[in-house]
Specification:
This protein is an alpha+beta fold. The chain has 3 helices and 20 strands.
């Protein structure tokens, strides 16, 4: 009986092995979301980068939704960056809560994606305490097919386990994020400013919309200028103060390394009629004054000449 049980166990293990070999190629081709880190050794007080990435060689997708979980006893999120992300449209931009140990996002790409590997976002972590720290996914993680229907499906998910070590006295803390920022000398990508007017937005008042990306450190914020007014920090869509549309509009995109890219939108409506322009009337006044002065000068010069001739 013992031999029979042993033979059964061997047979089951053999079947599992064969099944794994059969399904391994299809698993390798399956759509998946996973974590990636280049840090070889992580010590307490290190700041390091973990990337959330997507692979979908078998299906054409255009969006992803997920809540990422991290051990907030061992890790603290310092910042999130979408620099170089596959997604250019964010229904819900990446946000984090260190208190709950969660990061959530809903992002998409209008062109669709079907390839081996692409970046979703970078997570900048501080290693708070030594020990094992696990990054995982909540159940609401989906990919969406680029089929015009928003068909969702559950991808294969790969968690990540990090081992945070006690720092030896001779090893100074490292900051991968600061190193990346210092290397970033490239401004954000060129972009266009679009003028809009919609009854559902800002009570049908004129507004502008804009968006750009930065391949390295990511966009930090935008500044908007109307005419000669100072720049102000703002987001898209942005309600214009000059509703008569007579000002040149400038939008400055600044990445997290401080590099800038400026785009301009010229006034779409004709300028004020010349006869309503104060500078026009000032010019007319100056010309009239000059003419009057010239006439008076000629008059008095002629009068003086006549007097001199009579005197002789």
């Amino acid at each position: 009986m013992t031999n029979f049980k042993k033979q059964n166990k061997i047979a089951v293990l053999f079947c599992l092995l064969i099944s794994g070999l059969i399904f391994l190629p299809s698993l390798a081709q399956a759509s998946r979301i996973y974590f990636s880190s280049l840090a070889e050794e992580i010590y307490k007080d290190d700041i390091f980068i973990v990337e959330t990435r997507v692979s979908s060689p078998d299906r054409l997708i255009n969006a992803a939704e997920s809540t990422l979980l991290f051990d907030n006893d061992k890790l603290e999120v310092k910042e999130l960056s979408i620099g170089g992300s596959l997604f250019s449209v964010w229904l819900s931009p990446p946000v984090f809560s260190n208190q709950e140990g969660k990061i959530s996002f809903i992002g998409g790409t209008p062109d669709g994606f079907q390839d081996e590997d692409a970046l979703i976002l970078k997570i900048i972590f501080l290693a708070k305490n030594k020990g094992e720290a696990v990054l995982d996914f909540q159940d609401n993680t989906y990919l969406f097919l680029h089929d015009g229907k928003g068909t969702q499906f559950g991808p294969w998910l790969r968690p990540l386990s990090l081992n945070i070590l006690e720092r030896p006295a001779e090893i100074i803390p490292k900051d991968e994020w600061q190193i990346l920022i210092e290397k970033d000398k490239t401004p954000p990508e060129p972009f266009e400013i679009l003028l809009g007017q919609d009854p559902a937005i800002f009570d049908n008042q004129y507004f502008i919309s804009f968006f750009t990306t930065d391949k390295e450190s990511g966009i930090d914020y935008y500044e908007i200028q109307e005419g000669i007014e100072p720049y102000v920090i703002g987001d898209s869509p942005y309600l214009l103060k000059d509703q008569k549309l007579r000002s040149i509009i400038r939008v400055k995109a600044i990445d997290k390394a401080g590099n800038e890219r400026i785009s301009e939108l010229m006034p779409p409506l004709p300028p004020m009629p010349f006869y309503k322009n104060i500078l026009f009337w000032l010019g007319v006044f100056i010309i009239i004054v000059l003419i009057v002065l010239y006439v008076l000068w000629r008059y008095f010069k002629r009068k003086s000449k006549v007097q001199n001739e009579n005197y002789r």
